[in-house]
Specification:
With 291 residues, the protein is an all-alpha fold. A two-stranded antiparallel ribbon has the order 1-2. It has helices at residues 2-35, 54-59, 63-94, 101-109, 116-138, 151-179, 183-191, 196-207, 209-224, 228-234, 245-255, 259-286, and strands at residues 38-39, 49-50. 74% of the residues lie in helices and 1% in strands. It contains twelve helices and two strands; from the N terminus they run H-E-E-H-H-H-H-H-H-H-H-H-H-H. It has one domain (63-286): MetI-like fold, CATH 1.10.3720.10. The mean pLDDT is 87.
C-alpha cells in the first residue's frame, strides 16, 4: 500500500514535467519534421505545397548555407580546443596551493553568469569603439581597429568572447574531477619518482576522463548551436562571413519566410550535431578509467 502511495506521489511530481517536455520539445520537433517536406511562407492562409526531399536536396547547392556550415565547423574546432585547454589550465591553477585560489575561481566563473546577448553587446563596444580609441591613442592601428569590420578578425572576436564566457564554467567541471582523485594515488606516483608532467599526463588525465567527456560534450554542443553571441556581436557580418548555421536557419525562416526550407535545414543541423556529440561521447567513454 505504501509503495502505491509513493508511486502516486512520484507520478504527481513527474507528470507536469513530462507534459511540459512533450508540449515544448517533442510535439514541435515532430511537427517540424513534417514542415521540412513542404514549401510554405509561414502565412496561415497561404497554401502549403508538398515537395518531398527537394528541401533537403536544395541545401547542398545553397552556397550561403554551406558557407555557414564551414564557418561553424571552423569556429567550433578552435573554440572547443581553446576553451578546454584554458578551463583545464585554470582548474589546475585553482586546485594548487595558490592563496587567492577561491577569489580567482569566482572571477573566472563570473563571465558565465552574463547572458549571451548582453555579453555580445558589451564586447561589441570593446571591439569597435574601444579598440579604435586605443589604436588612435597608441598608434598601433594595425592591431587596434574595429575588428568587427574585418572578416578574419570578426570570427576571431567571436572565438574570444565565447571562450571568455565558457572557460570559467568548464573550469568548475575539471575542478570537480581533479578533486575527486584520491590523494594516495598522487602520493604513490610521487613516491615512484613521477614528476609534475608525468603525474599530470599518466595519472591525473586518465582519472579525470569523465570530466573530459562532459566538457567536450558541452562545449561541442554549445559552440555548434551558437546563436545569441552571433546575433549581438557580429550579426553574421561583415558580408555573412560570421553567419553560423543556427543564425542561417533563423534568417531563412524569419527573414526570408521560407518556413519549409528553413525547417529542413534545422532537421539536418540537429542530425549533424547529435551525431558528432554522440560519437565524441562514445570515444571518450571508452577511455574512462575506474578508480
Amino acid at each position: 500500500m505504501r509503495r502505491k502511495k509513493d508511486k502516486a506521489w512520484y507520478a504527481l511530481f513527474v507528470l507536469p514535467l513530462v507534459f511540459v517536455f512533450v508540449t515544448v520539445v517533442i510535439i514541435p520537433f515532430l511537427t517540424g519534421i513534417g514542415y521540412s517536406f513542404i514549401s510554405w511562407d509561414g502565412m496561415p492562409l497561404n497554401e502549403k505545397t508538398y515537395v518531398g526531399m527537394k528541401n533537403f536536396i536544395r541545401m547542398f547547392s545553397d552556397k550561403r548555407f554551406l558557407s555557414s556550415a564551414v564557418h561553424t565547423l571552423f569556429f567550433t574546432i578552435l573554440s572547443v580546443t581553446i576553451i578546454n585547454l584554458l578551463g583545464l589550465t585554470f582548474a589546475l591553477v585553482v586546485t594548487s596551493k595558490l592563496r587567492i585560489r577561491n577569489a580567482v575561481r569566482a572571477m573566472l566563473f563570473m563571465p558565465y553568469l552574463i547572458g549571451g546577448l548582453i555579453l555580445g553587446y558589451i564586447w561589441k563596444f570593446i571591439f569597435t569603439d574601444l579598440f579604435k580609441m586605443i589604436g588612435e591613442f597608441t598608434g598601433l592601428d594595425n592591431f587596434f581597429f574595429s575588428w568587427l569590420l574585418n572578416p578574419d578578425f570578426s570570427l576571431a572576436a567571436m572565438i574570444i568572447v565565447t571562450t571568455w564566457q565558457l572557460a570559467g564554467y568548464i573550469m568548475i567541471i575539471y575542478i570537480n574531477g581533479i578533486q575527486g582523485i584520491p590523494e594516495d594515488v598522487i602520493e604513490a606516483a610521487k613516491v615512484d619518482g613521477a614528476g609534475f608532467w608525468h603525474t599530470l599526463i599518466k595519472v591525473k588525465f586518465p582519472l579525470i576522463m569523465p570530466s573530459f567527456t562532459i566538457c567536450l560534450f558541452m562545449t561541442l554542443s554549445n559552440c555548434f548551436k551558437i546563436f545569441d553571441v552571433n546575433v549581438s556581436l557580429t550579426g553574421g557580418g561583415p558580408n555573412n562571413s560570421t553567419e553560423m548555421m543556427a543564425m542561417n536557419i533563423y534568417n531563412e525562416i524569419f527573414s526570408l519566410n521560407n518556413y519549409g526550407y528553413g525547417q529542413a535545414k534545422a532537421i539536418l543541423f540537429f542530425i549533424a550535431v547529435a551525431s558528432i556529440t554522440l560519437i565524441q561521447v562514445a570515444i571518450t567513454k571508452k577511455r574512462e578509467v575506474e578508480m
